[in-house]
Amino acid sequence: MPELPEVETTRRLLEQALVRKRIVSAEVRRPRMVRRHENPGDFVARVTGRTILALRRHGKFMLADLTQDITWVTHLGMSGRVSLARTGEPEPAHTNVVVRVGGGVEMRLVDPRTFGFVAAYTRDELGASPLARLGPDAYESLPSAEELEAQLAARTAPIKPLLLDQTVVAGLGNIYADEALHRAGIAPDRPGGSLTLDELRRLRRSIRTTLDAGLRWGGTSLDDLAYLLPDGRAGEFASRLLVYGREGEPCRRCGTDVKKAVMRQRGTHWCPNCQR
DNA sequence: ACCTCCCTGGCC
DNA sequence: GGCCAGGGAGGT
Asked: Is A30 a catalytic residue?
């Protein structure tokens, strides 16, 4: 589940291996994984020979600043992960994109469902890309309760899909949105505009606490192990989840059965007693 | 401000 | 065999 903690954990491990390295070659095995280019060759041509100056993150997008004002963007989608390896080591199935740097190290983008993607933007293209429409990063730039209140004031949509929208805050996905709402004691179907300032203060704190916890444990690897850290280890946050994936199990706070319903086509988990 | 669709693998 | 899954874009 690549959401903010998984992408950030991935970014931190990649940073040590990739920053200040020159991209020696790149390979695209699944053309579909390269978005917003006429053909995959354009991505390869734009990144090859350039040096990685910095590795950043905004929401669930990972951004590598390359020399000559090119930004290499990676998104892990639903089922993507990154594997860091030495060239020649056995490849995991569904290794769809490979980027090699000096020293025989390569970054492999592994993604069975191919909902993830890479792209290489010029400065102008980046400004016109979907990235430009992201809200503030939920971890680095979490808005104040007052700012959240202003953003949500006129919104009638339920708070859960608003948290997934990426325009109010960027980086929460289906797991961490459910977790943060539980921690805040707010029901997922509450209209966004109905949250009081006090509730928004709780929500804000809960987002921070939830993301911190996810990061501390290396993110959430579910049973299918679709998400793994770049070194192949599993994230250990799954066993500490409060509500996600715990339908019918007792709420860790009050013992009430955790409920699950579908909201805007996404499974939504909450405690009907703790969350109002 | 909604749905629908994009894919594949794993589970029932 | 059908259903479900971490996300986002695109169209209505």
From this structure: no
